């Protein structure tokens, strides 16, 4: 009986300080165009003067969809960072992430099939989440009150044609992944995940340095900050690549403050291996990644298996002694 009660007691004790996520303190507009985030033709996704595009070292897998990420800051305001974790964003910040599929093998010259744009809006220290679905004429995106399924044809990472019902998440789905305790927080733009090289000013530049030059990032000790490796970078070790993959695809739920805290898996990149639970749950990790349906992990945002990711995690788990 004692053994059976241990996990129940663990959940009760760790749940006592977890309040409900607050209701939105903004009113989301019905159309994406009403925010004025993009110049000219909205489908071109050209940010307005307050918007800055950014890229991540390792990105969330979402049925092989591509993304364009933009941070919109109030005029004269800056992002403030003191370490390599999630920085502080000023009141009024909007983070927009648009999901799309190129319609040919050359993404640079291809027409895009726009599916959804997700917004995170910081109002008085509280983040609010919403999703907007692009219409069939690709000239507007409309606020969703529930999830939606969109039949799509696309090319995967090996340029193989695939078909699926792409799932656009509801607000409830957004909260499930973005919740940390009783708050909603951004997931991707941690400083270590922004700490990568990008192409700007017709040349390559360290992205954090680029953001400093644009006078939108206040950060010190650039040279001493850690960086998250790209899980696609074959020059990195299998262990580093696998831990980066788990960080961006799993750790937002599997951490002590996430919605899957009761699994006793802590998949954050910075957590020492002997504190992650990976040793004990190797079979469950790869098993849940390798099936579709209700048992599939990640639970949100994927309807097809990420074959490359599964191979990477299998190799990593097999390397553990």
Automatic annotation (TrEMBL):
Q: Return the protein name.
A: Cytochrome c domain-containing protein
Q: Whose protein is this, by species?
A: Sphingobacterium puteale
């Amino acid at each position: 009986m004692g053994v059976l009660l241990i996990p129940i007691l663990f959940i009760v004790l760790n749940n006592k300080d977890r309040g409900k996520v607050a209701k939105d303190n903004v009113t989301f507009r019905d159309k994406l165009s009403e925010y004025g985030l993009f110049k000219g033709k909205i489908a071109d996704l050209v940010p307005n003067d307050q918007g800055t595009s950014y890229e991540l070292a390792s990105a969330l897998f979402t049925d092989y969809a591509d993304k364009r990420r933009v941070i919109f800051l109030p005029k004269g305001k800056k992002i403030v960072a003191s370490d390599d974790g999630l920085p502080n964003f000023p009141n009024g910040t909007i983070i927009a992430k648009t999901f799309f599929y190129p319609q040919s093998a050359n993404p640079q010259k291809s027409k895009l099939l726009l599916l959804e744009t997700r917004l995170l809006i910081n109002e008085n220290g509280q983040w609010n989440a919403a999703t907007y679905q692009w219409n069939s004429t690709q000239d507007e995106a409309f606020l969703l009150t529930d999830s939606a399924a969109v039949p799509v044809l696309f090319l995967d990472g090996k340029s193989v044609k695939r078909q699926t019902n792409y799932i656009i998440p509801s607000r409830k789905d957004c909260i499930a992944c973005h919740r940390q305790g009783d708050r909603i927080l951004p997931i991707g733009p941690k400083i270590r995940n922004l700490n990568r090289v990008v192409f700007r000013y017709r040349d390559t530049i360290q992205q954090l340095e680029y953001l400093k030059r644009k006078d939108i990032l206040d950060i010190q000790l650039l040279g001493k900050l850690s960086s998250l490796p790209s899980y696609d970078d074959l020059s990195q070790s299998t262990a580093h690549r696998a831990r980066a993959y788990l960080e961006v695809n799993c750790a937002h739920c599997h951490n002590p403050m996430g919605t899957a805290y009761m699994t006793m898996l802590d998949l954050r990149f910075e957590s020492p291996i002997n504190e992650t639970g990976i040793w004990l749950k190797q079979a469950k990790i790869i098993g849940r990644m390798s099936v579709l349906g209700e048992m599939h992990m990640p639970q949100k945002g994927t309807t097809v298996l990420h074959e490359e990711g599964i191979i990477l995690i299998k190799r990593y788990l097999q390397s553990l002694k």
